[in-house]
Specification:
This protein has helices spanning 4-22, 25-33, 41-46, 56-62, 67-82. The N and C termini lie far apart (42 Å). By secondary structure, it is mainly alpha-helical. It is globular and about 35 Å long. It has one domain (4-82). α1 (4-22) runs parallel beside α5.
């Protein structure tokens, strides 16, 4: 049985991985294009991306009480913005 703590740790690891992928230009473009960071459901649906409740932005809002998760999400956003 998976505990809530295990799920939290898995989420953190995925966000760290997303931040690392975001530092690569091609990955960052694809992440943005598919709606991984989008808030607009229509924009994500147009590209077959994740639903808005699975975007990086919504995860940041959902986990606002978890300082480490907020830090990892912001790190991923920064990497996306820095991609050339």
């Amino acid at each position: 049985m998976t505990s809530a703590n295990d799920l939290g740790e898995s989420s953190r690891q995925v966000i760290i991985l997303v931040g690392e992928f975001a530092s690569h230009e091609v990955c960052a473009v694809e992440m943005a294009r598919t709606g991984m960071v989008a808030v607009d459901t229509e924009a994500t649906d147009a590209y077959g991306g994740p639903a808005a409740n699975h975007s990086l932005f919504s995860l940041l809002a959902e986990k606002s009480g978890d300082d480490e998760m907020v830090l990892q999400c912001l790190h991923a956003f920064c990497k996306l913005l820095q991609a050339r």
